[in-house]
Amino acid sequence: MLACRIDIDAELKLSEVNMNLIEELNRLEPFGLNNPYPVFMFKSLKIEKFSKIGQTGEHFKLKIRNSGSSFFDAVGWGMGDACDSLLKDSIFFDLAAQVGSNRWNNKESVQLSVVDLRPTI
User: Fold this and answer.
1) Which pLDDT score is estimated for 89?
2) DSSP letter, residue 35
3) How many angstroms separate the CA atoms of 12 and 45, rounded?
């Protein structure tokens, strides 16, 4: 959708994503040009909810899951308009994302930052 080529570091299942994984990833810091933040592939995720966020809808937020998993939030920064037509055609997607955490109201939770997504064929 947005990138021509994405380097995927590993394939994960949502069930493998938790705060322990985030702590392990934090041990790899600092991230930057010579040490890029890892990107993970998640296959056949179901999008349960889609909404645009930001003052002008420039970002999107997804509530996703795969079979048997809990729900996770995924945010596509700067990708609000790019996903309009894509999300109308399918509810199952492969997702390339970075794994991180989000702190809101003094509660920390796992959040995926979308790098790219494509409909599952």
Assistant:
1) 67
2) B
3) 11
